[in-house]
User: Fold this.
Amino acid sequence: MKKLILSISLLAAVTAANAQTYATNWTATDCNSVSHTLFNTLDSGKIIVFIWVMPCASCKNGAKAAYDAVQSFATSHPGKVRMYLADDLGDASCSGLSSWVSSNSVGSTANMTIFSNAGNVIDENDFGGTGMPHVIVMGGTDHNIYYNKKGSLTNDLTGITAAVNTAMSALSVGEAANNAKFSVLPNPANDVITVEGLNNVTKIDVVSVSGKTVRIEKVAAGKTSVQFSLSGLASGMYLVKATDINGNTSIQKLVKQ
Assistant:
């Protein structure tokens, strides 16, 4: 119960300025000739801090903030948070990008994955348009974007770190949801959902990623399923929380289309 409350509280760290969006998949080869598919990496439980650079002098502060944020998790969560750095248009060489990272004291190239982005296969326009530098934080099997800023706004170690923490919290909630004792159908859903497999449940709450309860449904004694509408709710991820007669809770993730 305490873990659930903590997880939902941490989800509330997402601010309106960094409203939830979703990543677009891509497959690209890095500067060490290793192929990466974004969704495969996110589905494996990794959190990606991704930055596009030109490279340019004005890109270095945002790049260093991203690097420092990732490194702050290196000891507590080894291998969990990864930094990807790519040329914005795919017209910079791997050696040129590595030299830029080193000469601008961004960080160690050994602690990041660099893409020349040849052919512009990692298209910045798929992630909200161009702007140098451009930093995004992604995580979860829903491929959520928890941070998406450009230009001087990316010189934001605190904000990037907070977004990674929020992604971490969402992953924890997802793990708890996988053990839920009820099901939500359909999922994703457009309007009406049915919550099935209830056992001594008295109440169903639908909670937004900001931690706000947006629906409350009372469950009559003895009922094992309940149906209700999501009408009026914005598209995105929600938590469906069931509370039983003893105050125990169980959760499932829900995607509203």
